[in-house]
Amino acid sequence: MSAPRLWNLIAELTYRCPLRCPYCSNPTDLRSHPDALDADAWSRAFAEARALGAVHVGLTGGEPTTRRDLVQIVRAAAAADLHVHLVTAGLPILPDGLGALARSGLGSVQLSVQDAEEADSDRIAGTNAFARKLVFARAARELGLPLTLNVVLHRHNLGRIAAIAALARSLGARRLELANAQYHGFALRNRAALLPTREQLRAAASDVERERTRSAGLEILFVLPDYFADRPKPCMGGWGRKALVLAPDGRALPCHGASSLPLEFWRYPERSLRQCWEDAPGMNAYRGEGWMREPCRSCPERARDFGGCRCQAFALAGEAAEADPACALSPHHALLAAARDADAADAGDGPGFAWRTW
Questions:
Q1: What pLDDT is stored for residue 351 in this prediction?
Q2: CA 124 to CA 157: how far, in whole Å?
Q3: Which of 38, 197, 228, 307 could bond 296 through an S-S bridge, CB–CB 3.0 to 4.6 Å?
Q4: What is the rounded distance in angstroms from the CA atom of residue 205 to the CA atom of residue 228?
Q5: Mean pLDDT over the full length of the chain
Q6: How many angstroms separate the CA atoms of 69 and 64, rounded?
Q7: CB 203 within 8 A of CB 196
Q8: How far is CA 312 from CA 97, 217, 294, 308, 346, in A?
Q9: CA distance 48 to 252
Q10: How many CB atoms sit inside 10 A of residue 239's CB?
Q11: Could you give the C-alpha distances from 26 to 30, 67, 183, in angstroms and in order?
Q12: For position 230, what pLDDT does the model report?
C-alpha cells in the first residue's frame, strides 16, 4: 500500500514529566528515549510535515512545558501553517508562560486532570498538582484558548463522572474527554489496580448520558475501554493512515506505543520526514490488508477497524500480526477476558501502584 496523505503530526517533545501517573502510556524505559531534537530540528520537521499534507500538530510528551525552548517550537509550528495544540498537565508552566505561547501562535489546549477533587487528583498524579492545574485552566480561558479537559478513567474515579463534568463546566471547557485507560506502558503494569468492573462501567455510561443533557456547549466524549468491548477500535485511525508520532529520540512512529514492537522505524533527521513516513519498513508493516491473518483477513469489518491495535496484539498475544485480543473473534480473546473478569486486588490508596518514574 502506498503511503496516504499525512494529516496529523504528534510531536512528543520529551518524556520528562513532573507527574507520576500509574496509567501513563509512555515507554517504561524512559531514560532510553532522550530528547534528541532541538528547536531547529522541530522547526524543520514541522515544515516537512506540512509539505506531506499535515494541518495539525499536537505538542505532547511526557510534559511538553518542561522544554525551555517551547516558545520557539510553538512559533515554528505556527509558521509552518499548522494548527498548534498543546497537550499538558498544566505544570511546570506558569500563566505568563502560557501567554507567551498564545502570542507565538498556540491555537488550543488540552489539560489533563486526574479527578474532580484535589486530594484524589493529587493522589493519582503522585504529586501536588491540582491547584496549579486550575490556575492553568483559568489562564487558558482568559487568553481565549479553546480548552479541552482530559480525564483518564479507571476503577478509582469512574464513580465521579458528575463531579468531573461539573468541574469542566466551571472551567469553561469546550470538550471533556473521559478517556478510559488504555493498557500500554505503565498502565499495563498497573492493570490489576486500574481495571474497573463491568458494573462500574455501566453506571458511568449512564452518568455520561445524564451529564450530556446538562451540559449544553460542552462536548463529552466517552468510549468503552478495549477490555469491555467485543470489537476492536481502529488504532490511530489505522496504522500509518493519518497520523505520525515523532518521538523525543527522533523515531517516526505510527502510534505512541509502536516503539515496543520489533520493527525498523527510521529516525528524523537522519532521514527526511517523507522517507520516514513513506518508506520505513516499520511504518509500512501493517498498512493496508496484505499483512492480515485470519480471522481478520476475511472479516467484513477489516476496513473499519483495520484489525485493531498492533501493540496490544504484541503485548498480549506475542505477535503484532495477530488479531487484536480485544476482538471476540481473536483466538487470544480469552487472555483479555481473563484479565477483565478477574477479581483484581484492591489498590487501596495507591501503594500497590508501579508509579511512573523518570
A1: 46
A2: 10
A3: 307
A4: 12
A5: 93
A6: 10
A7: no
A8: 37, 35, 17, 8, 24
A9: 13
A10: 26
A11: 7, 17, 11
A12: 86
- Say how far apart CA 311 and CA 256 lie, in whole Å: 9
Nearest to 230 by CA among 338, 339, 341, 336: 336
* Sheet with strand 219-223: strands edge to edge: 219-223, 175-180, 147-153, 108-112, 83-88, 56-60, 8-12, 243-246, 252-253
> Among 286, 302, 277, 279, which residue's Cα sits nearest to residue 5?
277
Please provide the size of the chain in residues: 358
Residue-wise burial string across 155-169, b where 16 or more C-beta atoms lie within 10 A, e elsewhere = bbbbebbeebbebbb
Establish whether the linkage from the previous residue to 53 is cis, with ω within 30° of 0.
no
Mean pLDDT by 10 residues, the chain (358 residues): 90 95 88 91 98 98 96 98 98 97 98 97 95 97 98 95 97 96 89 90 95 92 86 89 96 94 97 98 95 95 93 93 94 87 50 74
- The C-alpha atoms of residue 270 and residue 262 are separated, in whole angstroms, by 20
Query: Is there a contact between 101 and 86 (Cβ–Cβ < 8 Å)?
Result: yes
Q: How many CA atoms lie within 13 A of 200 on its CB side?
A: 18
Residues 282 and 263: beta-carbon distance below 8 Å: yes
Non-local CB neighbours of 38 within 8 Å, separated by 6+ positions:
69
Please state whether the peptide bond connecting residue 269 to the residue before it is cis, i.e. omega within 30 degrees of 0. yes
Instruction: Tell me the pLDDT tens digit for each residue of 270-290.
Output: 999 999 999 999 999 999 999
Quick one: how far is CA 180 from the chain centroid?
Answer: 11
At 294 the pLDDT is: 95
**Nearest-angstrom CA–CA distance, 100 and 112:** 20
281: preceding bond cis by omega (within 30 degrees) = no
Residue-wise burial string across 87-125, b where 16 or more C-beta atoms lie within 10 A, e elsewhere? bbbbbebeeeebbbbbebbbbbbbbbbbbbeeebbbbbb
